[in-house]
Structure formats: structure tokens, C-alpha cells
Amino acid sequence: MVNSMNKEATTMWKLSGAVVAAVLLTAGCSWTKEKVQVSGDEATVNQKDTSEPQIITPIINTDGEEIGEAKLTADNGGVSIEVKASGLTPGEHGIHIHEHGVCTAPDFKASAGGHFNPTGKEHGFDNPKGYHLGDLRNLEVDEKGEVYAQMATDQVTLEKGQENSLLDNDGTALVIHEGADDYKTDPAGDSGKPIACAEITMNQLK
Fold first, then answer.
1. Beta bridge partners of 84
2. What is the pLDDT of residues 60-105, one digit of tens each?
3. Whether the Cβ atoms of residue 45 and residue 152 lie closer than 8 Å to each other
4. Which intervals hold domain Superoxide dismutase copper/zinc binding (predicted)?
5. Do residues 50 and 27 lie in contact, with contact meaning Cβ atoms separated by under 8 Å?
6. Quick one: DSSP state of residue 121?
7. Rounded percentage of the chain residues whose pLDDT exceeds 70
8. How far apart are CA 98 and CA 118, in angstroms?
9. Side-chain half-sphere of 165: how many Cα atoms within 13 Å?
10. 1 belongs to a structural domain
11. Using CA atoms, how far apart are residues 14 and 129, in angstroms rounded to an integer?
12. CATH number for position 54
């Protein structure tokens, strides 16, 4: 059952042509279809047609244990992202796309590198010198330590060889941090150390 959400949490963000939308649900849900409002038009974030490039990749914690799964799907030139995970601390957590597709526990910062930032900007949606193309909106983890979230961005692609592709030579990674992203502090929104990681590479491409 979809958790109720306050008005602020359901605000859709449009930033310099990038539409980033998030719907926070419970981790016990299966991959289900949810409709979200994007700039006045109804958009669907759901399980995409398998003809579209898609990546399904495990999320691991700093002990190397699998705690969930991320699914990335090509979506009208951009990428829709779904995250299911458990065993996290309740509350807000920063989540970003990092520059290397390597998740080696326990030090994901060392293996996955910094944020995916091919445009050379500073971090943060609220930073006048920002933002990184790997910046995403915070996850909201429930009191059980579980999260199911959907989001989308038109600033990156899964098309190999294209500009801003997440599937460059060494891939990229989806990284969850221990604290909330403040959307302004460079280089990672004061969100603390990485606590979970999922590799985005050609090996996971369906």
C-alpha cells in the first residue's frame, strides 16, 4: 500500500530542462505502475517495455550483503530509476550516481569515485554553480528501514556511446549515503559516507 505523502515530498522538480520526479513507497511492493504529475502533464514511471535498454542490479551494503535492487530503464532519451532496499536507517538519505561502476565494500567512495559530473558543475540543485548530472532527490526510508522509490531524469542516458551515458568505459554506480543531501554543499550535499552501492555496467544490461 502506498504511503501517504505530504505536499512538499510530492513536489515535482524541473531544473534547467531536467525533470526529476520521485514517488516514495514501501519496500514490500513489487515493481508496480505508478503515475506521477510532471509539469502539468501525466507521466508514467513503471516497468518499461523490455525492448528499452534496462539494467537490474543488486544493492549491497558495506558488509557486502545484498540489501535490495535497483532498476534503471531508458525513458524517452533519459532514465527512470527504481530503488528497493531494506536494512537502512529510517529517515532521509542522499542518493547519487557516481562516476565508476565498481562497488567494493566497505569503501564505496574509493571504488565508485565521486559524483557523475561530466559537465564540471558543483553539487546541489540549490547551488547556483550546480548541479551534478548524478544528483538525485533524497530517499525517504520508513520506520522499518525499508524504501521503495521511483525517480526520473532526462540529463543522462543508457545509450552507450552517447553524451552523458551512464554506460561509459567503466560504467557508473548508484550510491546511497548515510545522511540527507542538503542540495547545496559541494561535493556531496553533506550527506555523509556511502553506505550502499549498486553497479551500473554493461554486465547488468538486459
1. 69, 148
2. 999 999 999 999 999 998 999 999 999 999 999 999 999 999 999 9
3. yes
4. 68-200
5. no
6. P
7. 75
8. 11
9. 14
10. no
11. 16
12. 2.60.40.200
For 90, what's the count of Cα atoms within 13 Å in the CB-facing half-sphere? 4
Spatial separation of the C-alpha atoms in residues 101 and 98, rounded to whole Å: 8
Peptide bond preceding 90 in cis form (omega within 30 of 0): no
CB 69 within 8 A of CB 147: no
Element (H, E) at 110: helix 108-112
Q: How confident is the model at residue 170 (pLDDT cuts 50, 70, 90)?
A: very high
Total number of domains in the chain: 1
The answer to whether residue 103 is domain-embedded is yes
Task: Indicate whether 123 pLDDT > 50.
Answer: yes
Q: Which three three-digit cell numbers place residue 45?
A: 514511471
Which residue range forms the structural domain that includes residue 108? Answer: 13-204
Kindly state whether residue 20 falls inside one of the protein's structural domains. Answer: yes
145 found inside a domain = yes
